[in-house]
Amino acid sequence: MNIPTVAYKRILLKLSGEALTGEKSYGIDPEIVNSIAEQVCGIEKFGVQVAIVVGGGNIFRGVSSAAVGMDRATADYMGMLATVINALALQDAMEKLGLSVRVQSAITMPQVAEAFIQRRSVRHLEKGRVVVFAAGTGNPFFSTDTAAALRANEIGADMLLKATKVDGVYDCDPMKNTEAKKFQTLSYMDALNMGLQVMDSTAISLCMDNNLPIMVFDLKKDGNIQKAVMGEKIGTVIS
């Protein structure tokens, strides 16, 4: 069997918690989780080293309406714990497909996950294991987008893949404006100056400072993760 040439040998896949809900209003949709697991399995067999950061918005977000009146740090810690639940769900789905998976948490909880250690996570990747990073950065006031940018730089990823519900970055909300213009490519500064809210400014700045490209693409389209890894022109590339 000829193994196709991949454009990126080591990637970090950023998944929002909301992406795991599917058609539900909250919680985890097993079909979506299994679909993501199958796509990761599909690229892992090509020798791609895969790390994942998952959000917790399908369960709890520190800046959500459910957190109104709460101490912000407390609410953010609750959100971090929600990401651990999602990480374990992804781990279970991927292991059922035969993948070797490690969950590393920024908040120490040895009964369910390894503590995040940069050298250990790189070693896992080199051994062909998928690493799922949970609990964000371990600090309140930082989003999981920032955690994704931070972890991607720490592991030396070639590309940060941000999976969303739309097929790229637009100049305005395509759900509300049918004439919204999609960008094929964007510079970091344009993404920041135009306030496009692709990722928060801290995450984009971190990628810009370390020259880490970001690809924003539609997760719902089956096979898009493989296309992204192969270097096909999907979504929007910020570099």
Please state the CA-atom Rg, rounded to the nearest Å: 17 Å
Architecture (CATH level 2) name = 3-Layer(aba) Sandwich
Biggest sheet, spatial arrangement of strands: 4-3-5-2-1-6-10-11-9
Number of strands: 11
Topology pattern, helix = H, strand = E: EHEHEEHEHEEEEHHEHE
CATH class type? Alpha Beta
Taken from the alpha-carbon principal axes, the silhouette is globular
**Average pLDDT level:** 92
Strand content: 15-25%
**What name goes with the CATH superfamily?**
Acetylglutamate kinase-like
User: Which segments are poorly predicted (pLDDT under 50) over 5 or more consecutive residues?
Assistant: none
What is the CATH third-level topology name?
Carbamate kinase
Structural domain tally: 1
Distance between the termini: 34 Å
Q: Quaternary status of these chains?
A: single chain
Tell me what the structure shows:
With 239 residues, the protein is of the alpha/beta class. The chain has one domain (10-238): 3-Layer(aba) Sandwich (Carbamate kinase), CATH 3.40.1160.10. The chain is 34% helix and 18% strand. The protein has seven helices and eleven strands. Strand 1 (10-15), helix 1 (30-44) and strand 2 (49-54) form a beta-alpha-beta unit. Helix 1 (30-44) crosses helix 2 (72-96). The mean pLDDT is 92.
